[in-house]
Amino acid sequence: MNETPKLLVILGPTATGKSDLAVGLALEFNGEVISADSRQVYRGLDIGTGKITADEMRGVPHHCLDIADPDDQLSVTQYKEHAENAIADIGSRGKLPILVGGTGFYIQAVVDNVSFPEVPPDEELRSQLEQQSAEELFTELREKDPGRAETIEPENKRRLIRALEIVAHTGTVPPPAQTGSPYNLLEIGVHLDRDILRTRIRERLERRLKAGMIDEADRLHRHGLSYERMIELGLEYRFLAQHLRGELTYEEMVEQLGTAISQYAKRQRSWFKRDHRIEWFHPDRHDEIAQRVAQWLA
RNA sequence: GGCCUGGUGGCGAAGUGGUAACGCGGCGGUUUGCAAAACCGAUAUGCGGGGGUUCGAUUCCCCCCCAGGCCU
Protein backbone atom coordinates (compact mmCIF):
# COMPACT_ATOMS: atom_id res chain seq x y z
CA MET A 1 0.00 0.00 0.00
CA ASN A 2 1.63 3.19 -1.21
CA GLU A 3 0.53 6.37 0.40
CA THR A 4 0.81 9.65 -1.45
CA PRO A 5 4.36 10.89 -1.17
CA LYS A 6 4.89 13.94 1.00
CA LEU A 7 6.44 17.05 -0.43
CA LEU A 8 7.25 20.14 1.55
CA VAL A 9 7.57 23.31 -0.50
CA ILE A 10 9.26 26.49 0.60
CA LEU A 11 8.67 29.34 -1.79
CA GLY A 12 8.53 33.11 -1.96
CA PRO A 13 10.14 36.13 -3.57
CA THR A 14 13.86 36.52 -3.81
CA ALA A 15 15.83 37.64 -0.74
CA THR A 16 13.32 36.46 1.81
CA GLY A 17 15.56 33.82 3.35
CA LYS A 18 14.11 30.65 1.88
CA SER A 19 17.36 28.71 1.56
CA ASP A 20 18.36 29.15 5.14
CA LEU A 21 14.91 28.27 6.38
CA ALA A 22 14.90 25.15 4.23
CA VAL A 23 18.20 23.94 5.60
CA GLY A 24 16.94 24.44 9.12
CA LEU A 25 13.81 22.45 8.41
CA ALA A 26 15.78 19.75 6.63
CA LEU A 27 17.95 19.30 9.70
CA GLU A 28 14.97 19.26 11.96
CA PHE A 29 12.84 16.86 9.93
CA ASN A 30 15.44 14.69 8.26
CA GLY A 31 15.00 16.18 4.84
CA GLU A 32 16.89 16.98 1.68
CA VAL A 33 16.55 20.04 -0.46
CA ILE A 34 15.55 20.24 -4.12
CA SER A 35 16.24 23.68 -5.52
CA ALA A 36 13.53 25.25 -7.67
CA ASP A 37 15.51 28.07 -9.15
CA SER A 38 15.77 28.51 -12.89
CA ARG A 39 19.26 30.02 -12.71
CA GLN A 40 20.90 28.01 -9.99
CA VAL A 41 20.62 24.97 -12.20
CA TYR A 42 23.57 26.32 -14.15
CA ARG A 43 27.15 25.56 -13.29
CA GLY A 44 29.29 28.56 -12.52
CA LEU A 45 26.47 30.97 -11.83
CA ASP A 46 27.19 31.13 -8.14
CA ILE A 47 27.56 34.54 -6.58
CA GLY A 48 25.17 36.17 -9.02
CA THR A 49 22.41 33.69 -8.29
CA GLY A 50 23.10 33.55 -4.58
CA LYS A 51 23.64 29.83 -4.83
CA ILE A 52 23.96 28.20 -1.45
CA THR A 53 27.54 27.37 -0.45
CA ALA A 54 28.76 24.07 0.91
CA ASP A 55 29.07 25.63 4.35
CA GLU A 56 25.58 26.99 4.28
CA MET A 57 24.20 23.59 3.39
CA ARG A 58 25.26 22.41 6.84
CA GLY A 59 25.49 18.87 5.59
CA VAL A 60 22.06 18.79 4.03
CA PRO A 61 22.15 17.33 0.50
CA HIS A 62 20.93 19.68 -2.21
CA HIS A 63 19.56 18.61 -5.59
CA CYS A 64 18.97 20.30 -8.90
CA LEU A 65 21.90 22.68 -8.55
CA ASP A 66 24.58 22.75 -11.24
CA ILE A 67 22.81 20.35 -13.53
CA ALA A 68 23.37 22.24 -16.77
CA ASP A 69 25.90 24.28 -18.63
CA PRO A 70 24.92 27.95 -18.82
CA ASP A 71 25.54 27.93 -22.55
CA ASP A 72 22.83 25.39 -23.06
CA GLN A 73 19.42 26.18 -21.78
CA LEU A 74 17.48 24.07 -19.43
CA SER A 75 13.72 23.95 -19.93
CA VAL A 76 10.94 23.45 -17.40
CA THR A 77 10.41 19.96 -18.66
CA GLN A 78 14.01 19.02 -18.18
CA TYR A 79 14.02 20.62 -14.79
CA LYS A 80 10.87 18.78 -13.83
CA GLU A 81 12.43 15.45 -14.67
CA HIS A 82 15.44 16.13 -12.50
CA ALA A 83 13.26 17.28 -9.66
CA GLU A 84 10.94 14.32 -9.85
CA ASN A 85 13.83 11.93 -9.83
CA ALA A 86 15.30 13.65 -6.82
CA ILE A 87 12.00 13.63 -4.97
CA ALA A 88 11.49 9.94 -5.64
CA ASP A 89 15.04 9.18 -4.63
CA ILE A 90 14.82 11.11 -1.40
CA GLY A 91 11.51 9.51 -0.55
CA SER A 92 12.81 6.05 -1.26
CA ARG A 93 15.46 6.61 1.35
CA GLY A 94 12.85 7.53 3.89
CA LYS A 95 13.72 11.21 3.97
CA LEU A 96 11.57 14.27 3.48
CA PRO A 97 11.89 16.05 0.13
CA ILE A 98 11.85 19.82 0.45
CA LEU A 99 11.35 21.79 -2.73
CA VAL A 100 12.62 25.32 -2.27
CA GLY A 101 12.85 28.20 -4.64
CA GLY A 102 11.37 31.21 -6.27
CA THR A 103 10.68 30.05 -9.79
CA GLY A 104 6.93 29.69 -9.69
CA PHE A 105 6.68 28.05 -13.07
CA TYR A 106 9.07 25.30 -12.07
CA ILE A 107 7.40 24.76 -8.75
CA GLN A 108 4.02 24.50 -10.33
CA ALA A 109 5.28 22.09 -12.95
CA VAL A 110 6.41 19.56 -10.37
CA VAL A 111 3.89 20.21 -7.66
CA ASP A 112 0.90 19.84 -9.98
CA ASN A 113 2.60 17.50 -12.40
CA VAL A 114 1.95 19.81 -15.33
CA SER A 115 2.75 18.15 -18.62
CA PHE A 116 3.84 20.15 -21.59
CA PRO A 117 3.55 19.28 -25.27
CA GLU A 118 6.48 17.12 -26.24
CA VAL A 119 7.75 19.37 -28.94
CA PRO A 120 11.42 20.17 -28.64
CA PRO A 121 12.64 23.62 -29.61
CA ASP A 122 13.11 23.94 -33.35
CA GLU A 123 15.79 26.57 -33.67
CA GLU A 124 15.43 26.82 -37.40
CA LEU A 125 11.73 27.45 -37.25
CA ARG A 126 12.18 29.84 -34.38
CA SER A 127 14.67 32.06 -36.10
CA GLN A 128 12.49 32.02 -39.16
CA LEU A 129 9.40 33.08 -37.22
CA GLU A 130 11.48 35.63 -35.40
CA GLN A 131 11.64 37.65 -38.61
CA GLN A 132 7.93 38.27 -38.53
CA SER A 133 6.07 40.83 -36.50
CA ALA A 134 3.98 39.87 -33.53
CA GLU A 135 0.92 40.88 -35.47
CA GLU A 136 1.73 38.53 -38.33
CA LEU A 137 2.48 35.71 -35.95
CA PHE A 138 -0.73 36.26 -34.12
CA THR A 139 -2.74 36.25 -37.33
CA GLU A 140 -1.07 33.03 -38.34
CA LEU A 141 -1.77 31.40 -35.01
CA ARG A 142 -5.37 32.50 -35.10
CA GLU A 143 -5.80 30.70 -38.39
CA LYS A 144 -4.04 27.54 -37.36
CA ASP A 145 -5.11 27.24 -33.75
CA PRO A 146 -7.79 29.74 -32.77
CA GLY A 147 -8.12 28.13 -29.37
CA ARG A 148 -4.59 28.85 -28.36
CA ALA A 149 -4.71 32.27 -29.97
CA GLU A 150 -7.50 33.16 -27.58
CA THR A 151 -5.33 32.59 -24.57
CA ILE A 152 -2.18 34.34 -25.68
CA GLU A 153 -1.22 37.98 -25.66
CA PRO A 154 -1.00 39.15 -29.29
CA GLU A 155 2.17 41.13 -28.61
CA ASN A 156 4.11 38.36 -26.97
CA LYS A 157 6.30 37.06 -29.77
CA ARG A 158 8.05 34.51 -27.63
CA ARG A 159 4.84 32.76 -26.71
CA LEU A 160 3.41 33.08 -30.18
CA ILE A 161 6.49 31.46 -31.64
CA ARG A 162 6.37 28.58 -29.22
CA ALA A 163 2.68 28.04 -29.92
CA LEU A 164 3.33 28.03 -33.66
CA GLU A 165 6.20 25.66 -33.10
CA ILE A 166 3.90 23.21 -31.37
CA VAL A 167 1.28 23.65 -34.03
CA ALA A 168 3.84 22.95 -36.73
CA HIS A 169 4.69 19.64 -35.14
CA THR A 170 1.40 18.41 -33.80
CA GLY A 171 -1.30 20.45 -35.47
CA THR A 172 -2.64 22.08 -32.35
CA VAL A 173 -1.70 23.17 -28.85
CA PRO A 174 -3.44 20.83 -26.45
CA PRO A 175 -5.27 22.38 -23.53
CA PRO A 176 -3.35 22.18 -20.27
CA ALA A 177 -3.68 18.79 -18.66
CA GLN A 178 -5.63 18.83 -15.44
CA THR A 179 -4.09 16.29 -13.15
CA GLY A 180 -4.32 16.73 -9.44
CA SER A 181 -1.15 16.99 -7.44
CA PRO A 182 0.56 13.63 -7.07
CA TYR A 183 1.88 14.73 -3.71
CA ASN A 184 0.71 15.26 -0.23
CA LEU A 185 1.72 18.89 -0.17
CA LEU A 186 2.52 21.54 2.31
CA GLU A 187 3.38 24.86 0.75
CA ILE A 188 5.02 27.40 3.00
CA GLY A 189 5.36 30.91 1.58
CA VAL A 190 7.97 33.25 2.97
CA HIS A 191 6.77 36.80 3.05
CA LEU A 192 8.41 40.09 3.89
CA ASP A 193 7.06 43.59 3.80
CA ARG A 194 7.85 45.32 0.49
CA ASP A 195 9.99 48.08 1.88
CA ILE A 196 11.96 45.71 4.02
CA LEU A 197 12.45 43.41 1.09
CA ARG A 198 13.64 46.31 -1.00
CA THR A 199 16.37 47.23 1.45
CA ARG A 200 17.33 43.60 1.88
CA ILE A 201 17.70 43.28 -1.86
CA ARG A 202 19.91 46.35 -1.93
CA GLU A 203 22.05 45.14 0.94
CA ARG A 204 22.40 41.69 -0.52
CA LEU A 205 23.48 43.23 -3.79
CA GLU A 206 26.25 45.15 -2.06
CA ARG A 207 27.40 41.97 -0.40
CA ARG A 208 27.49 40.10 -3.66
CA LEU A 209 29.51 42.85 -5.27
CA LYS A 210 32.01 42.70 -2.43
CA ALA A 211 32.08 38.94 -2.76
CA GLY A 212 33.39 39.23 -6.29
CA MET A 213 30.31 39.06 -8.43
CA ILE A 214 31.83 41.19 -11.17
CA ASP A 215 34.88 38.95 -11.32
CA GLU A 216 32.66 35.95 -11.56
CA ALA A 217 30.84 37.37 -14.55
CA ASP A 218 34.08 38.41 -16.17
CA ARG A 219 35.52 34.96 -15.66
CA LEU A 220 32.43 33.30 -17.10
CA HIS A 221 32.71 35.46 -20.14
CA ARG A 222 36.38 34.73 -20.62
CA HIS A 223 35.55 31.04 -20.40
CA GLY A 224 33.18 31.40 -23.28
CA LEU A 225 29.83 32.54 -21.92
CA SER A 226 28.65 35.19 -24.35
CA TYR A 227 27.36 38.55 -23.22
CA GLU A 228 24.22 37.87 -25.21
CA ARG A 229 23.56 34.77 -23.18
CA MET A 230 24.30 36.61 -19.95
CA ILE A 231 21.82 39.27 -20.91
CA GLU A 232 19.24 36.63 -21.57
CA LEU A 233 19.91 35.06 -18.18
CA GLY A 234 18.65 38.28 -16.69
CA LEU A 235 19.14 40.26 -13.49
CA GLU A 236 22.71 40.19 -12.14
CA TYR A 237 24.23 38.63 -15.22
CA ARG A 238 22.33 40.92 -17.53
CA PHE A 239 23.47 44.10 -15.82
CA LEU A 240 26.93 42.77 -15.15
CA ALA A 241 27.32 42.04 -18.85
CA GLN A 242 26.24 45.53 -19.74
CA HIS A 243 28.69 46.95 -17.27
CA LEU A 244 31.55 44.80 -18.52
CA ARG A 245 30.75 45.86 -22.04
CA GLY A 246 31.03 49.46 -20.94
CA GLU A 247 27.40 50.26 -21.52
CA LEU A 248 26.72 51.05 -17.89
CA THR A 249 28.85 52.72 -15.27
CA TYR A 250 29.26 50.92 -11.98
CA GLU A 251 26.78 53.26 -10.33
CA GLU A 252 24.22 52.86 -13.08
CA MET A 253 24.56 49.12 -12.91
CA VAL A 254 24.02 48.97 -9.16
CA GLU A 255 21.08 51.31 -9.35
CA GLN A 256 19.32 49.64 -12.25
CA LEU A 257 20.02 46.15 -11.04
CA GLY A 258 18.61 46.91 -7.63
CA THR A 259 15.43 48.13 -9.24
CA ALA A 260 15.25 45.15 -11.57
CA ILE A 261 15.53 42.70 -8.69
CA SER A 262 12.72 44.42 -6.83
CA GLN A 263 10.59 44.25 -9.94
CA TYR A 264 11.37 40.59 -10.20
CA ALA A 265 10.22 40.10 -6.63
CA LYS A 266 6.96 41.74 -7.57
CA ARG A 267 6.45 39.35 -10.46
CA GLN A 268 7.10 36.46 -8.13
CA ARG A 269 4.48 37.80 -5.77
CA SER A 270 1.98 37.99 -8.62
CA TRP A 271 2.67 34.42 -9.56
CA PHE A 272 2.32 33.02 -6.07
CA LYS A 273 -0.87 34.92 -5.36
CA ARG A 274 -2.74 32.53 -7.56
CA ASP A 275 -1.89 29.49 -5.48
CA HIS A 276 -4.24 29.56 -2.55
CA ARG A 277 -2.72 26.50 -0.94
CA ILE A 278 0.26 28.54 0.15
CA GLU A 279 0.43 29.35 3.83
CA TRP A 280 2.41 32.53 4.36
CA PHE A 281 4.84 33.15 7.18
CA HIS A 282 7.38 35.75 8.17
CA PRO A 283 10.86 34.19 7.85
CA ASP A 284 11.65 34.93 11.49
CA ARG A 285 8.74 32.77 12.60
CA HIS A 286 10.82 29.67 12.41
CA ASP A 287 9.09 28.04 15.35
CA GLU A 288 5.63 28.53 13.95
CA ILE A 289 6.73 27.12 10.64
CA ALA A 290 8.39 24.12 12.25
CA GLN A 291 5.27 23.54 14.26
CA ARG A 292 3.14 23.64 11.15
CA VAL A 293 5.42 21.17 9.42
CA ALA A 294 5.37 18.82 12.39
CA GLN A 295 1.60 18.95 12.45
CA TRP A 296 1.45 18.16 8.75
CA LEU A 297 3.87 15.26 9.09
CA ALA A 298 1.95 13.71 11.96
C1' G B 1 19.78 95.95 -7.98
C1' G B 2 19.49 94.80 -13.59
C1' C B 3 19.20 91.24 -17.69
C1' C B 4 18.38 86.22 -19.51
C1' U B 5 16.48 81.27 -19.26
C1' G B 6 13.36 78.08 -16.95
C1' G B 7 9.36 76.43 -13.39
C1' U B 8 4.21 70.58 -16.48
C1' G B 9 2.32 63.77 -12.48
C1' G B 10 7.42 60.67 -7.68
C1' C B 11 11.61 61.73 -11.41
C1' G B 12 13.12 63.03 -16.56
C1' A B 13 10.81 65.37 -20.60
C1' A B 14 7.31 67.09 -24.99
C1' G B 15 3.42 70.37 -26.11
C1' U B 16 -0.84 73.50 -27.87
C1' G B 17 -5.79 79.45 -27.43
C1' G B 18 -10.17 74.55 -27.06
C1' U B 19 -8.98 71.38 -22.47
C1' A B 20 -2.07 67.50 -21.14
C1' A B 21 2.97 63.13 -25.95
C1' C B 22 6.51 59.93 -24.29
C1' G B 23 10.41 57.52 -21.05
C1' C B 24 11.52 55.84 -15.99
C1' G B 25 9.69 54.56 -11.31
C1' G B 26 5.69 53.01 -8.30
C1' C B 27 1.01 50.01 -8.69
C1' G B 28 -1.85 45.82 -10.80
C1' G B 29 -1.72 41.61 -13.96
C1' U B 30 -0.49 37.43 -17.73
C1' U B 31 2.30 32.92 -17.51
C1' U B 32 0.96 25.36 -22.20
C1' G B 33 9.66 23.25 -23.00
C1' C B 34 13.66 30.32 -23.14
C1' A B 35 10.07 31.97 -16.93
C1' A B 36 15.81 36.08 -13.16
C1' A B 37 12.74 35.40 -19.54
C1' A B 38 8.82 37.40 -22.54
C1' C B 39 4.46 40.30 -22.34
C1' C B 40 -0.02 43.38 -20.90
C1' G B 41 -2.96 47.20 -18.16
C1' A B 42 -4.38 51.49 -15.20
C1' U B 43 -1.73 55.63 -13.50
C1' A B 44 -1.73 64.62 -13.68
C1' U B 45 -9.91 67.56 -13.93
C1' G B 46 -3.82 69.14 -13.81
C1' C B 47 0.72 72.44 -16.35
C1' G B 48 4.88 77.63 -9.62
C1' G B 49 1.12 81.55 -7.10
C1' G B 50 -2.36 85.68 -7.90
C1' G B 51 -4.89 88.81 -11.17
C1' G B 52 -6.42 90.06 -16.33
C1' U B 53 -7.71 89.35 -21.79
C1' U B 54 -11.00 85.62 -24.13
C1' C B 55 -16.88 82.00 -25.47
C1' G B 56 -12.60 79.27 -23.63
C1' A B 57 -5.71 79.65 -21.11
C1' U B 58 -1.39 75.13 -19.21
C1' U B 59 -0.59 77.90 -23.74
C1' C B 60 -1.45 85.58 -24.43
C1' C B 61 -0.69 90.11 -20.87
C1' C B 62 0.59 92.09 -15.77
C1' C B 63 2.41 91.34 -10.76
C1' C B 64 4.68 88.04 -7.31
C1' C B 65 7.56 83.60 -5.71
C1' C B 66 11.39 79.95 -6.77
C1' A B 67 15.82 77.81 -9.48
C1' G B 68 20.01 78.36 -12.65
C1' G B 69 23.13 81.64 -15.59
C1' C B 70 25.08 86.45 -16.77
C1' C B 71 25.94 91.68 -15.46
C1' U B 72 26.74 95.93 -11.97
What oligomeric state is this?
single chain
Structural class of the secondary elements?
alpha/beta
Low-confidence stretches: none
Total DSSP helices: 14
Helix content: 40-55%
Largest sheet: 6 strands, parallel
CA-CA gap between termini: 18 Å
SSE sequence, one letter per element: EHEHEHEHHHHHEHHHHHEH
The share of residues in extended strands comes to: 5-15%
Query: How many strands appear in the DSSP assignment?
Result: 6
Rounded to an integer, what's the Rg over CA atoms?
20 Å
Strand order, largest beta sheet: 3-2-4-1-5-6
Q: What's the overall geometry?
A: globular
Q: Overall mean pLDDT score?
A: 94
Please tell me about this protein's structure.
This protein has 298 residues and is of the alpha/beta class. A six-stranded parallel sheet has the order 3-2-4-1-5-6, with helices on both faces. Helix 2 links the parallel strand 2 and strand 3. The chain is globular. The two termini are 18 Å apart. The structure holds one RNA strand of 72 nucleotides.
